[in-house]
Structure formats: C-alpha cells, structure tokens
Amino acid sequence: MANEPPRPVPLSRAALERVLARAAELQAQGGDDEPGLSEAQLVEIAGEVGLSRDVVRQALAEERARVPVGPESGAAYALLGGAVVQAARTVPGDAAAALATVDAWMQHESLTVMRRQADQMSWEPRQDFVSALRRALRVGGRGFHLAAATEVRAVVAAAGTRRTHVRLVADLGGARAKAAGVAIGVAAAGVLVGVPAFWLATNAGLVIAAALALVPSLAVPMAAVTIARNRFRAQRTRAHVALEQALDRLEYGDGPPRG
C-alpha cells in the first residue's frame, strides 16, 4: 500500500559496527545513572538493523561465558609463556545438562569438584593414592593431561532454545612454575660449575681449558630453558586437546573416556 512505511534496508557490516559503536558512545555519555539495555532490547534492536536474533543470542552467551584472564608476568612467564588454556563451543542442550556432562568427563580425568554454581563449576586434581596410581600407570591408556592443571573451570550460558555456550579454562600455573624451577636450577648448576673452572683455568694461563670451561655456563642454561619451554608447550597442547575432547562429548555425544 502507498501509506506503508518503507522497509528498513539491512545495514552493511561496516555500517552496523559504526552504529553500535556510536550507540555505545552515546550510552556512556549519559553517565552512570543512564539505564543500560536489557538483553531482550538488544536482541530486538539487532533484529531491526538486519542481524539474526539467533546470532545475537549466541554473542550474548559468549560474552556471559567469557572468563577474564589478567596479564601475566614473572620469571616463569618470561621463560615458558602463558599458563592458561581455553576452549569454547556452542553445543546442543541446556546449561544444566552441559555442566553435568562436563563434570562426568572431569571425574574421568582424575579431577574432583572444587566449587559448584548454577552457571559454572571448577575442579582440581584428586590427591588420593589411588588417583595418583591411576595417573602414574596411565590406566586405560589415557594420559590424564588435565590433572596437571591447578584448576579447571567450566562456564555455561544459554544461547537460545536448547543451545548452550560452554567455555572451559585450564590453569597450568603450578606445572609451569615447577618446570621453570627445574630449568632455573639446572641453569644455575651449569653456571656454578663453569664459572669457577673458567676462573681457575684463566689464572693458570690455560686458554683452551678456559674456553672449554665456559661451555657449561653458556650451553647448559640455554639447553635447560629450551627443553623446559618445549615440554611445557607440549603440555599446554595436550591440555587443550583434552578440553576439546570434553566439548566433543557435549556436541557429538561420544562415550566417556576409557578407564
């Protein structure tokens, strides 16, 4: 009909980003007393500018399940890198069922519950003798790679009807500290051996012996740090694979781990 208002033309991605950025700027200028948008309002607005409501709901779920990770520092970080491993996925089912499934998986990974809340859970390695023996013997042919973590955490958020966004986070800070300590100890031993030998050989006028005495002081620390870094990176990779396997269980319904 002639009196019907024209249908809004969907915005391009660049235009949509500009609109949302400007809206956020205007909202911030309103001050702390300015009420924010509810999730329902945000979904409605997104639909009006051409965004799929399901996509917006998933983006909101990912935001709610986000786990802030602060900047890392210190000798262990400088030597070996970051200690936090994350994996996330949107899977079928509701949040409660997703947490229950992840909990069952973590029990098979030789972990026990630390905290339990409505939308998240955390686990730590079991410390009993039987669990330690299972990990040492690799019962069932499994590596129990998440047992190296100080803490494993799961956060869930509904992403629409019968879909849940799940984020798993493993903190390998304890394993990294241990690996860094070993590397620093070996490096210090190389220096303690090489420096006195170099000093004695230099005072005795033995040029070749003095040069050879520098080898432990230089090569041993470099080798110790390189080996520790490679091993910790491999440990991070195995932990990440274990997190992805837990998400595979949620998405595809695979059976629980052996053992």
* Topology, number of strands: 5
- Give me the number of helical elements: 8
Helix content: 55-70%
* Rounded average pLDDT: 81
Please tell me the total number of domains: 2
Q: What's the alpha carbon Rg, rounded to whole Å?
A: 27 Å
**Which structural class should the secondary elements be placed in?**
alpha+beta
Layout: helices, strands, pairs:
Elements: H1 13-29, H2 39-48, H3 53-64, H4 75-80, E1 84-92, H5 95-108, E2 111-116, E3 120-125, H6 129-137, E4 151-158, E5 163-171, H7 173-203, H8 207-252
Antiparallel strand pairs: 1-5, 2-3, 3-4, 4-5
Helix pairs in contact: 2-3, 5-8, 7-8
What can you tell me about this protein's structure?
- The protein is an alpha+beta fold and 259 residues long.
- It has two domains: 13-51, no CATH class; 52-259, no CATH class.
- The chain is built from eight helices and five strands, in the order H-H-H-H-E-H-E-E-H-E-E-H-H.
- The protein has a five-stranded antiparallel β-sheet with strand order 1-5-4-3-2.
- Strand 2 and strand 3 form a beta hairpin.
Write a concise keyword list for the protein shown above:
8 helices; elongated; 259 residues; 5 strands
Give the gist of this structure:
With 259 residues, this protein is of the alpha+beta class. 56% of the residues lie in helices and 15% in strands.
